[in-house]
């Protein structure tokens, strides 16, 4: 029995499944998923914690067959709502009667919906992606604090939240704008801007969007890879000597650019995964606060 259920006096077994894209080409793609799963596993919030991937093993299609629990909470480790969260994952999990309209989402507000898995009979609480959860704003700000080694970051600093962008899925950009607007309203950055790789406003014009001499750039990507370690630094004009080899800070057109790399590698993201499951009814006890404290300690030690 998990620590959370032991504290609450209930004996219903709960499992957490974290679903990510994965990659056959990038061996680091799955690293954040395993790291966050380990953090949550150590918290004792769930009886079982599993990782599953679209492009790697263990696969999404088979993962429910490896879980023996009364209730399964599935959290997609994706940045935005779209093809994978609305079609691929529910199909691979074989959720009986899945209908995306159950989320009643405007593109950033998908919460959770409960279904039965056809072949296992499991009760599955299928959650919205972590990337659209309100707490992602905290992760982005923590990422900025980590890279500048400044817990009071804000005044005198600009913040760029960078997404991929695509004309094929308008929700891809919605998540970036959503968090940029929330951070602008809640924190003291000189300016917060949503920028993109493949649509306007583009990250290669990053210095045109800020008056401050220091700008932190946080890519809203789950894992580091070609886009975050090569494309974005090159687009911004950072001097590089190889993939992932760029100065922090680097100087572009007289502006100091503090480039953080993928937000998905921030330890605090484990807290957002827990919050997604908690919102769907998981009994996680005090695990959210414990994980939040521990991941902040990791960030402070790393900085």
Topology:
Layout: H1 3-8, E1 14-20, H2 31-43, E2 48-53, H3 60-63, E3 71-76, H4 83-93, E4 112-116, E5 123-127, H5 136-148, E6 157-163, H6 170-186, E7 191-196, E8 214-219, H7 226-236, E9 250-252, E10 255-259, H8 269-279, H9 287-302
Parallel strand pairs: 1-2, 1-3, 3-5, 6-7, 6-8, 8-10
Antiparallel strand pairs: 4-5, 9-10
Helix pairs in contact: 2-8, 5-6, 8-9
What is the average of the pLDDT values? 91
Number of separate structural domains = 2
Proportion of helical residues: 25-40%
CATH class of the largest domain, anyone?
Alpha Beta
Estimate what percentage of residues fall within beta strands: 15-25%
**Alpha carbon gyration radius:** 19 Å
Q: How would a crystallographer describe the biggest sheet?
A: 5 strands, mixed
CATH architecture of the largest domain: 3-Layer(aba) Sandwich
Strand/helix succession = HEHEHEHEEHEHEEHEEHH
Kindly identify the CATH topology of the largest domain: Rossmann fold
Provide a descriptive summary of the structure in words.
- By secondary structure, the chain is of the alpha/beta class.
- The chain is built from nine helices and ten strands.
- α8 runs antiparallel to α9.
- The model has no long low-confidence stretch (mean pLDDT 91).
């Amino acid at each position: 029995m998990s620590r959370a259920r032991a504290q609450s006096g209930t004996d219903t077994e709960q499992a957490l499944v974290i679903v990510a894209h994965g990659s056959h080409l990038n061996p680091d793609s799955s690293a954040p998923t395993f790291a966050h799963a380990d953090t949550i596993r150590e918290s004792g919030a769930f009886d079982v914690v599993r990782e599953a991937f679209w492009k790697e093993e263990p696969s999404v299609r088979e993962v429910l067959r490896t879980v023996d629990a009364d209730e399964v909470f599935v959290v997609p480790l994706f940045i935005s709502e779209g093809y994978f969260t609305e079609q691929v994952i529910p199909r691979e999990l074989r959720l009986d009667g899945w209908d995306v309209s159950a989320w009643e989402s405007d593109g950033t507000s998908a919460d959770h919906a409960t279904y039965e898995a056809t072949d296992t009979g499991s009760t599955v609480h299928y959650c919205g992606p972590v990337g659209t959860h309100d707490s992602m704003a905290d992760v982005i700000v923590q990422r900025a604090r980590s890279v500048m080694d400044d817990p009071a970051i804000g005044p005198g600093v600009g913040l760029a939240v960078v997404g991929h962008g695509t004309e094929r899925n308008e929700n891809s950009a919605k998540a970036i704008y959503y968090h940029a607007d929330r951070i602008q309203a809640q924190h003291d950055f000189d300016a917060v801007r949503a920028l993109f790789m493949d649509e306007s406003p583009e990250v290669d014009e990053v210095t045109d969007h800020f008056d401050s001499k220091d700008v932190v750039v946080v890519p809203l990507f789950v894992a580091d890879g070609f886009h975050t370690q090569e494309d974005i630094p090159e687009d911004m004009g950072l001097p590089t000597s190889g993939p992932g080899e760029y100065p922090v800070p680097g100087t572009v057109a007289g502006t100091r650019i503090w480039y953080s790399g993928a937000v998905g590698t921030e330890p605090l993201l484990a807290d957002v995964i827990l919050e997604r499951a908690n919102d769907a009814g998981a009994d996680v006890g005090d695990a959210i606060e414990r994980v939040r404290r521990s991941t902040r300690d990791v960030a402070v030690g790393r900085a």
